[in-house]
Amino acid sequence: TNRESQVLELLGQGLTQKEIAKMLFISVSTVKRYLESLYKKLNANNKTVAINNAKKLKISTEAEMIRTVFH
To answer: I need a labelling partner for 32 at 20 to 30 A (CA). Which of 3, 14, 25, 68 fits?
Structure first.
């Protein structure tokens, strides 16, 4: 989703879950849910792997992410 892309981008910038939540005006538990979804889609078990896998897939837009995950 677009929000997942935003969370991934901020995570890649080195922000903590709390900082991401504050910037996006959402709760930390919501950030955690987005991260769980991202980790699953990116076949990752932590933020470093998720970021690296996203870079390998060159995910930069929501449309690209959807195509990559579902095709």
So the answer is: 68
